[in-house]
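Quick illustration, no need to memorize.
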Amino acid sequence: MIEVTDFRNAMSLLTAAVNVITTNGASGAHGFTASAVCSVTDTPPTLLVCMNQAARSHAHFIDNKILSVNVLGAQHEAISNAFASKLSAEERFKYGSWTQLATGAPILQDALVSFDCVIEDIQQVGTHSVFMCRVVAIGHAEPQVEVNESLVYFNRSYHYVGQVQVA
């Protein structure tokens, strides 16, 4: 049997992109920081997002049935920390500039890329909910002269990786 601590220690060595996941609707605007996001298929465009069922905003994502995945760049550490903190939802959204696309879920204007999604299915797996999200719109940051780096999490700390070339 694998111990929880052993699993967590091993997972800390799985490099992952840092994302802020947001929602808005009848239940209000909410968000959290997540690394458990991945592509499922491109036909139809679908992402998988995992969320702890004990999170304060969990019920809001279920109620609103929409979310956006905002992929963070190296300049977004403070936003990542805010959305991972005990700050209120209102206080979290004071970090960054926000807009929206098709669903109305908050989109970080200078995210490397944002995926605007409708939650189509939810699976309960252990302590987490796995949201299957159909992508209905994609937003990109305004073209920039400088190269950007992606914010990633590895070995329990932030790192920067890659370069996004702007044509």
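The longest helix spans residues 4-11.
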